[in-house]
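Section 3.1: Structural characterization of target chains.
Under the original work plan, the team committed to producing a structural model for every single-chain target entering the pipeline before any wet-lab resources were allocated. The record below documents one such target. The sequence was received from the expression subgroup and is listed exactly as submitted; it comprises 94 residues.
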Amino acid sequence: METMTIETMPAQTFEELIEHYIHWAEAWDGALPADVFFGVWADFQEASQPIALHARIVDGRLCFEPVAQDVIQVYDNRIHLEDGRELVIELQPA
């Protein structure tokens, strides 16, 4: 059985689904089930954990090891954050 998407869904079916969710939202009192609340809370807590980066010095340059996650990307001495910012770490002589 093929999963229906917005692109493949008949217009009438889409309109019925929108109506259904509008009526559902009107009746919703805003309460969240405990498992949903604590699941979201756990996601927030996990997101606030530190990210460990491993680095080494190669020919006098700092080189980060790739990390297995989507939050940041590293390349040589550059850290690319998910919000588009880039951190460049430059070693200074002692």
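The mean pLDDT is 83.
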